[in-house]
Design goal:
The protein has 374 residues and is an alpha/beta fold. 34% of the residues lie in helices and 18% in strands. It contains eleven helices and 14 strands.
C-alpha cells in the first residue's frame, strides 16, 4: 500500500501546491475551496474526508485516495502535583517525543518538541544525552498541539469540552521549548507557526507563541525574515564565551558577540522584546561578575531576562543555586532597569521541567507502573 500524504504537513500555501501536484487541476481547487479543506482539518477537526460535506464528492474521493489526516498517538501521560501533565507521544515510525501541559496561575501553556533528541549538546540538559535521532515533520509538531487539545477536551477538565473548541481552547500559550533545537528544524517549525497563526488554522496570536533557540545565527535571521509570527527566546546561560562554550558547545561556532549583534538587528514589532533564558548553575554562571556583565551585554536589545534555577538531572554534575541567590539576581537586574522574571519550574516531580525531557526516562516510568499494576 502506498504511503499517503498527511495534510497536517502543510500550511495553506503548501497545501495548495501538494494537492494540485497530486490530483491535478481538473477538480474544483479554487483558493476558496482549499481554504474550506484547511478549515475542515483545523477548525472542525475532521479526519474523514467523507465528512467534508460542502466539498464535492469527487474531490473528497480524490483526497481520500492520496491523503490522510493523522495525529501522533498519546501512549502515556503523567500528572504532576502542581497540575502540569507530561505526555509521551508515539509517531508513525515508532519514534517517541514528549510534550508538557504546564499549569500556571492564570493560564495553561503547552511546551512542544521539534526533534527526536537534540544535536546541540548542552551539558546541563537531559535531552542532549539522547543525541539527535531525527527532525520532526510539521504534522508531528502541530499534531502534538492537536492531540493534547483533544485529550483535554475528552477529559472534560475545567469544564472544557469538544462542543465548542474554538471558544474554549484548553491552553492559551505554546512554547517551542521541548525536546530538540527548534531552529535546527527551522523549515518545519516555521510552517508549524504559520498554521498556528492562520485564522483558518489554529488561530493563535503570535504574542502567544514563543520559539526558543540556543543561538543558530543563520536560522535566527531566516526566522526573522519569514512571515511566521512568534516571540523569539534565546537560551543564553552565560556572560562569557569561555563559560558558554563549556556548557553550550554551539557557542564555539556562533560566539556571544556575533549572536548579540544579530539580535540587535532582529526585526521586532513595536513593544516586543526578545526573551533571554538564563539557566542558573551554582558556581558556574551565577557569580557577582556574571550579574554585572549581563545588563552590559544586552545593551541595545529590547530584552526580557527569564531566570531559571537549574532543574537537577542526575549524573550531569550541575546544581541550582539557593533560592535567595536567585532572588538577589532578579533584584539586581531590576535595579539596572532590566525586565526580569524568575521561572520557578513546573512538573519537576515527573521530570517535566526545563531540560529534563527524555523519552527513555518516561518509558522506564511507564514500564514500572505497568509492572506494579500487574
Amino acid at each position: 500500500m502506498e504511503t499517503k500524504f498527511n495534510l497536517l504537513d502543510y500550511d495553506q500555501d503548501g497545501l495548495k501546491e501538494v494537492i494540485k501536484s497530486v490530483i491535478g487541476d481538473s477538480l474544483d481547487l479554487t483558493p476558496y475551496r482549499l481554504r474550506q479543506i484547511f478549515q475542515w482539518v483545523y477548525r472542525r477537526r475532521v479526519k474523514d474526508f467523507s465528512s467534508m460535506t460542502d466539498i464535492s464528492k469527487k474531490l473528497r474521493e480524490a483526497l481520500a485516495e492520496s491523503f490522510e489526516i493523522t495525529l501522533p498517538e498519546i501512549i502515556f501521560s503523567q500528572n504532576s502535583v502542581d497540575g502540569s501533565r507530561k505526555y509521551l507521544l508515539k509517531l508513525k515510525d515508532g519514534s517517541e517525543v514528549e510534550s508538557v501541559l504546564i499549569c500556571q496561575p492564570t493560564r495553561f501553556t503547552l511546551c512542544v518538541s521539534s526533534q527526536v533528541g537534540c544535536a546541540i549538546g548542552c551539558k546541563f540538559c537531559r535531552t542532549a544525552q539522547m543525541g539527535l535521532k531525527r527532525n520532526l515533520k510539521v504534522s508531528e509538531i502541530i499534531g502534538q498541539v492537536m492531540a493534547v487539545q483533544e485529550d483535554v477536551w475528552s477529559r472534560g477538565e475545567r469544564g472544557i469540552t469538544f462542543d465548542d473548541p474554538e471558544a474554549q481552547a484548553p491552553f492559551q500559550n505554546i512554547v517551542f521549548m521541548g525536546m530538540g533545537e527548534p531552529l535546527h528544524n527551522k523549515d518545519s517549525v516555521i510552517s508549524t507557526v504559520k498554521i498556528l497563526n492562520d485564522e483558518h488554522g489554529l488561530n493563535f496570536s503570535g504574542r502567544k507563541i514563543t520559539v526558543s533557540t540556543s543561538g543558530l545565527i543563520p536560522a535566527i535571521k531566516e526566522f526573522g525574515e519569514s512571515s511566521a509570527r512568534a516571540n523569539l527566546a534565546i537560551s543564553l546561560n552565560a556572560t562569557t564565551d569561555e563559560v558558554r562554550t563549556e556548557i553550550m558547545p554551539i557557542n564555539k561556532r556562533w560566539p556571544l558577540e556575533d549572536l548579540l549583534e544579530t539580535l540587535r538587528q532582529f526585526p521586532l514589532k513595536a513593544g516586543r522584546r526578545i526573551t533571554f533564558e538564563y539557566v542558573l548553575l551554582a558556581g558556574v554562571n551565577d557569580t557577582d561578575e556574571d550579574m554585572k556583565r549581563l545588563p552590559v551585554l544586552l545593551r541595545g536589545i529590547p530584552a526580557k531576562i527569564n531566570l531559571i534555577p537549574y532543574n537537577s538531572n542526575s549524573g550531569l554534575g550541575y546544581y541550582p543555586p539557593e533560592a535567595e541567590r536567585v532572588q538577589i539576581w532578579q533584584k539586581t537586574l531590576l535595579s539596572k532597569g532590566m525586565n526580569s522574571t524568575i521561572r520557578w519550574s513546573k512538573g519537576m516531580d515527573i521530570s517535566a521541567a526545563c531540560g529534563q525531557l527524555a523519552t527513555e526516562s518516561m518509558r522506564a516510568k511507564k514500564k514500572l507502573e505497568q509492572a506494579l499494576a500487574a
